[in-house]
Amino acid sequence: MKTNFVLLFYLKKQKTWNKGPVPIYIRIIINGRRSELYVGRSCEISRWNGDAGRCIGTKEESRMLNTYLDTIQTKIRIAHQMLLESGEPITSES
What we know:
Number of helices: 1
Helix content: 25-40%
Strand order of the largest sheet: 1-2-3
Largest sheet: 3 strands, antiparallel
Strand content: 25-35%
Structural class: alpha+beta
């Protein structure tokens, strides 16, 4: 069975936000159903590339954040592949 699978990292700014780092969330979309999770890190809005879903810059802090996001993305893709191989129904929650 074919499933549409999308991962997206984005900043989720609160209504009361004035300045400072903003939490990073990941959105998992499977067959039009979505689930959002906080990844446990934050980033300044001015240093975020929304198209790439990554932090801009070459400093150690930016590289470490991007590596962390890559690790999360890889783990989710591995979990998705394992669900495909086991034949279990795939949802954004699973």
